[in-house]
């Protein structure tokens, strides 16, 4: 088992995290699926199949001790940690005046403290084994301001900068750190915060004119962790159907 490369994916019980876990398994990795929801974690393991080289870790990424224990389990089970994917995230869209301090703290705790704690716990193992890769899942909401996303958008913009900070510091240890910024992807999270009107707006503003698939994000995450991306660090790659590229007028021009 210790010769097999190993990846730790947070928020892996469903959505982009589960698709990412499956992508790493397909590439021959052992995968630690970490999530705070034990029930959906069990469903994910059932979906992946008992034979796969996986372990499940019930853990809240914003809890320092739980993260330390979980990372120790990954190291003890797989003997190494080659890739960390900081995917666990929460979204609550609301006006700034309705954003209670509790909501603000919860979103920052999962979306920013979580990746910081997971990276900090994994880095010593990566340094010891001579390298590794970290991918943080940000969002186009961290690149382009929009309404109702004061906490969520700010947490993702901060995570994008954490990505750069880590890449600057860890390059000498051959640890690459990148971010993937998804546009709208049809996951449970998107279904929760995107009603029909929002979905129509996104379609109108996205050159590829559709929501993305979880697997399309997972492929880019895997690429950035793989040796194919061996000279790529400190980057934020949008997987957004072109949303970040366009300004005003797309809908009008498209109809001509
Ligand atoms: P989902 O809500 O479908 O899945 C996220 C998973 O993370 C859930 O299983 C959730 O568990 C778990 N989780 C939440 N908080 C914690 C925590 N504190 N500790 C451990 N696990 C936790 O999300 P998506 O797959 O849609 O999104 C994944 C990432 O991609 C997120 O970071 C999100 O911000 C980002 N993203 C998603 C977009 C989209 O359109 N879907 C667009 C842009 C970015 P629980 O069951 O408790 O919720």
Main features:
about 260 residues, alpha/beta, Rossmann fold, seven-stranded parallel sheet, 9 helices, 7 strands, globular, binds NADPH dihydro-nicotinamide-adenine-dinucleotide phosphate
What is the compact description of this entry?
With 256 residues, this protein is an alpha/beta fold.
Overview of this protein structure:
- This protein has 256 residues and is α/β, with parallel strands linked by helices.
- The chain is built from 9 helices and 7 strands, in the order βαβαβαβαβαβαααβα.
- A 7-stranded parallel beta sheet has the order 3-2-1-4-5-6-7, sandwiched between helices.
- Bound molecules: NADPH dihydro-nicotinamide-adenine-dinucleotide phosphate.
- NADPH dihydro-nicotinamide-adenine-dinucleotide phosphate binds next to helix 1, helix 4 and helix 6.
Chart the SSEs and their pairings.
Blueprint (H helix, E strand, L loop, with lengths): L5 E5 L4 H12 L3 E6 L2 H11 L5 E5 L5 H15 L4 E4 L14 H29 L2 E6 L12 H21 L4 E8 L5 H6 L2 H10 L8 H12 L10 E4 L10 H5 L2
Parallel strand pairs: 1-2, 1-4, 2-3, 4-5, 5-6, 6-7
Helix pairs in contact: 1-8, 3-4, 4-5
The protein binds NADPH dihydro-nicotinamide-adenine-dinucleotide phosphate.
């Amino acid at each position: 088992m210790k010769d097999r490369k190993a990846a730790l994916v947070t928020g892996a019980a469903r959505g982009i995290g589960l698709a990412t876990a499956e992508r790493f398994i397909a590439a021959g990795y052992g995968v630690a699926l970490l999530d705070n929801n034990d029930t959906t974690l069990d469903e994910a393991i059932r979906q992946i199949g008992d034979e796969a080289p996986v372990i499940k870790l019930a853990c809240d990424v914003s809890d320092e001790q739980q993260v330390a224990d979980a990372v120790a389990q990954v190291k003890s089970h797989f003997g190494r940690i080659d890739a960390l994917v900081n995917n666990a995230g929460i979204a609550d869209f609301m006006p700034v005046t309705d954003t209670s301090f509790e909501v603000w703290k919860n979103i920052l705790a999962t979306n920013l403290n979580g990746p910081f704690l997971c990276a900090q716990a994994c880095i010593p193992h990566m340094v010891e084994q001579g390298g590794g890769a970290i991918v943080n899942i940000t969002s186009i909401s961290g690149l382009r301001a929009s309404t109702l996303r004061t906490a969520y958008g700010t947490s993702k913009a901060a995570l994008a900068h954490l990505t750069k900070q880590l890449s600057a510091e860890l390059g000498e240890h051959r640890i690459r750190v990148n971010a993937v910024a998804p546009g709208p992807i049809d996951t449970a999270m998107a279904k929760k915060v995107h009603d029909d009107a929002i979905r129509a707006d996104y379609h109108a503003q996205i050159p590829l004119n559709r929501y993305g698939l979880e697997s399309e994000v997972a492929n880019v995450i895997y690429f950035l962790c793989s040796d194919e991306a061996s000279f790529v660090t400190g980057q934020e790659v949008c997987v957004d159907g072109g949303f970040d590229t366009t300004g005003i007028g797309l809908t009008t021009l498209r109809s001509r």
